[in-house]
Amino acid sequence: MADGFDLRAYCYLDRMQPQYAAFTGTITQGDLPIEGMASLYVEMAPGNWVFRIVDVAVKATDAKPGAQIVEREFGMFELHSPSQADVQRAGEVVLAELGLDVARRIKPEIASMQVITNVDPYQAQLLNRFTKGSMLVAGETMLVLECAPAAYINLAANEAEKAAPVNLMHITSVGRFGRLWMAGSEADILAARDAAVTAIESIEGRTA
């Protein structure tokens, strides 16, 4: 392992939910995922390591790459497959190539969280200009969640959708923070929030 390497996130999704998979399909530049697939997100620094690690993983397994991104500070990639075993095996190959245990990932933290009730029509229209998912309707309740490392916001979104019939508006999972917007009834948003928080807090790892 090179000096200065940092395994920031190792994030496994057992089953992509319908809206989450559909949203991911609108932003991915690689192989398109569909509902029910398992997925793995890995975030690291320096970012250029993603190229080597993705190459090793796809050569060794049938998992397909959906994303391979290098930005200013970090690199992130996503692999998926209809087979949970394939994705779990890809994760094992990744860790073996890095010479690391999963315990070396950073334990995620929630950076900010807001529940906004009875959203104003003008606020809804402004936010709808930036979403790639569902539109926010005036009067709905909105969840805004931010976490670090960024890749873990994908787990939060997927688990929130499992928990309640909310509408997924937008996910940003690249950079220093991951961000999630969801909308629905107040009761459903509170249930989704609790599921997202539980998912984030359940991840074990080291302190950044």
Topology record:
Blueprint: E1 6-13, H1 18-27, E2 38-45, H2 49-60, E3 64-70, E4 75-81, H3 84-98, E5 109-116, H4 121-128, E6 141-148, H5 153-163, E7 167-172, E8 178-184, H6 186-202
Antiparallel strand pairs: 1-2, 2-4, 3-4, 5-6, 6-8, 7-8
Description:
- By secondary structure, this protein is an alpha+beta fold.
- It folds into two domains: 6-104, Alpha-Beta Plaits, CATH 3.30.70; 109-202, BMC (bacterial microcompartment) domain (Alpha-Beta Plaits, 2-Layer Sandwich), CATH 3.30.70.1710.
- The protein has six helices and eight strands, in the order βαβαββαβαβαββα.
- The chain has helices spanning 18-27, 49-60, 84-98, 121-128, 153-163, 186-202, and strands spanning 6-13, 38-45, 64-70, 75-81, 109-116, 141-148, 167-172, 178-184.
- Strand 3 (64-70) and strand 4 (75-81) form a beta hairpin.
- Helix 2 (49-60) packs across helix 3 and helix 5 (153-163) packs across helix 6.
- The mean pLDDT is 95.
Keywords:
single chain, 208 residues, alpha+beta, Alpha-Beta Plaits, 2 domains, 4-stranded antiparallel β-sheet
Quick overview:
The protein is an alpha+beta fold and 208 residues long.
Integer count of domains: 2
CATH topology type of the largest domain: Alpha-Beta Plaits
Rg over alpha carbons: 17 Å
Order the strands across the largest sheet as they lie in space: 1-2-4-3
| Tally of DSSP helical segments | 6
Quaternary status: single chain
Low-confidence stretches: none
Structural class: alpha+beta
Q: SSE order, as H and E?
A: EHEHEEHEHEHEEH
How far apart lie the N and C ends? 18 Å
CATH domain class name of the largest domain: Alpha Beta
Instruction: Tell me the fraction of residues in β-strands, as a range.
Output: 25-35%
The CATH homologous superfamily of the largest domain is called BMC (bacterial microcompartment) domain
Principal-axis shape: globular
Number of DSSP E strands = 8
Q: What is the helical fraction, as a range of percent? A: 25-40%
Summed over residues and divided by their number, the pLDDT gives a mean of: 95
